[in-house]
Amino acid sequence: MKFDTLLHKITERIGPRQGHQGDQTTAPTMSGAVRFPYGPFQFKVRLSRGALYELQASTEMHNWRTIANGTAAADALDYVDSEASKHSYRFYRVVANGIVSDNLLGYASITLPPGFSLIANPLHAPNNAVAELFKGWPDGTTLNKFDTRFFRLSENAVAHGKWTNASEQLSPGEGAIFYNPTQDYKHHSFVGEVMQGHLSMPIPAGFSMRSSLVPQSGHLQEDLHFPITEGDVIHLFDRDRQKYVLYPFENGKWQSGAPVISVGESFWVAKTSAGNWTRSFTTAE
Known about the structure:
It is built from 2 helices and 25 strands. The chain is mainly beta.
C-alpha cells in the first residue's frame, strides 16, 4: 500500500489533529458588563481553556495596569472589580497568550445636580434607548436632544413612571440636556463598549450638540482633536452655577482659554462651516 493512501486511512480513523490545550488563536472577548449600585463592576471573559491571561484596567486607555492574571480553567470566567468605586470611569481589556481582546468594556459615572446638565453617553451599550440608559428616574425628569434638521429640541420626559419616548436613542458622539427634578445630587453610570476603529461625527454649520466618540477627558482641540475653525464658539454648561460659559475661537486662538471636556459631558457648538470630528482608536493604543 502506498504511503499517501495509508496516511489517508489513518487520518480518516483518528479525525483532524486537535490543538494543544491553551491555544489562543482568536482574540478573547468581554461581555455582560454590569455596574452595581454599591460600586463593583462585573463582566464576563470568553477565552480558550488553559490560556494564560491578564485582565488589565486603565482610566485613559493608554497606560494599562494588570489587575488579575492566571490560567483559564474554563472557556469563560467572571470577574468582579471591587475597586471600581474608587474611579469615576474605568476601562478593561484582556490579553490571552499575547493576544489582546477585540473589544474594550467599561463604565463612566457622572454626577447630576438638581436642575440642568449637558450630558453624553460615552459608551456603546447593548441598547442605547433612553428608557434603558435612564432607568428609575422620577416623574418630571426630562431629556432633550437638538434636531439640526428642524432646528428644535426634542421632548422626552418621565411621566407616570415611564419615558414618553422610550425608544429615543442617545448614542456616543451625541449630546442632550438632562433635567434632574429632585433636590439631590444623583450619581448615574453608563456601561458598555468603547467605540473603536476610524470614528467620525459630522459637525454641521450652525448650532449642534456634540460629545466625544471616545470616552476620554481633556482639552477639546489638543487632546480630543475637535476640528475647530476660525469663528467657532463652544458653549459649556456650568452645572453648579446653572449657566453657560462661552469659548470663542478667534484670531487662531481661544479667547477665554481652551475648553476642557469631561467624560460623559456634551456641549453646544456654533460652527462657521461644516466639518467632521474624526478619531482613530484601537485596543492596541
